[in-house]
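Human:
Class, as today's exercise, you are to examine the entry below, and be ready to discuss the fold:
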Amino acid sequence: MKILVTGGAGFIGQHVVREFLARGYTVRVLDSLRPDVHAGGAWSPPAKVELVKADMREARALDQALDGVETVVHLAAKVGLGVDVQDLPDYASSNDVGTAELLAGMARANVKRLTLASSMVVYGEGLGKCREHGATTPAPRTETQLSRGQFEPPCPRCGVPLETALVSEDTPLDPRNAYASSKVAQEFYASNWARVTGGSVAAMRYHNVYGPGMPRDTPYAGVAAIFTSALKRGEAPRVFEDGGQRRDFVHVRDVAAATVQACEKHVLGVRAFNVGSGTPRTVGDMARALAKALHGPAPILTGQYRLGDVRHITADSTRLKRELDWMPLVGFEDGLTELAAS
């Protein structure tokens, strides 16, 4: 089977490509190698992997990349939450228009199987539990609340801070920043395409992915990479809010394996899958563990915040385990030790 991996030169993409090669597949990569993502310079594909260097919005290059392909893994995207309203056009163009062009190209090439990189950010604050009102969607956190250090999202009915809960794939979508909105749009466009063409879509809602090869000194760096870079400079990692933000940190090799499993096994209809380790941890936990692994200074809790960040979002990945026979294999401590050494 010949597979097209868009964004195959990226952090997750390189691990997905290696996983496909290990399983004996033929892989072609479509990647624009935009410099704000690939700050380290040019990327050379592994042996036997063809690289089409182009933007997905270029129809001629897209048709070339799709020629002879049987299935597509779509990872290419502008990531990060967006820090300004002026970021909106780039997210909409790179992610929404890019995906629409890809789907139109797949229809021209009669390629009917898609594995889509989505994200946990589509859930916003996910679900919380109010002792009086039960399961509820948290109210947005306001500038006034955050500036006072009131970080826990309140119940929209009584204003009491909510207890946390795992999110399943049936949790209502509630995008709260530019990146999240673009990911929801990608899922909707893919569903539209599948309905018209009879194609299949596995929407992989990745949680907080970490591991070797993470981009560190770019706008796309995740929190684990930011902390690692600081510690390697001899600086204490600076943790926003009070460090109590709950996340599901999942190793990139586990994410790659889940993505390949979905490509192999999901062949009918549209289905979303959470991809997480199943063990919630706080951002403060991550910072402390990395500081220990790198023998660096203890984290500093800054109390700083970013409007649009979510407080808690953690996954229930039961569907992925049950339907696609996937299990995470890299333990948190082992994964951080590897990241620290990379």
Observations:
- The mean pLDDT is 92.
- The radius of gyration is 20 Å.
- The longest helix spans residues 88-109.
- Residues 228 and 340 are 7 Å apart (CA to CA).
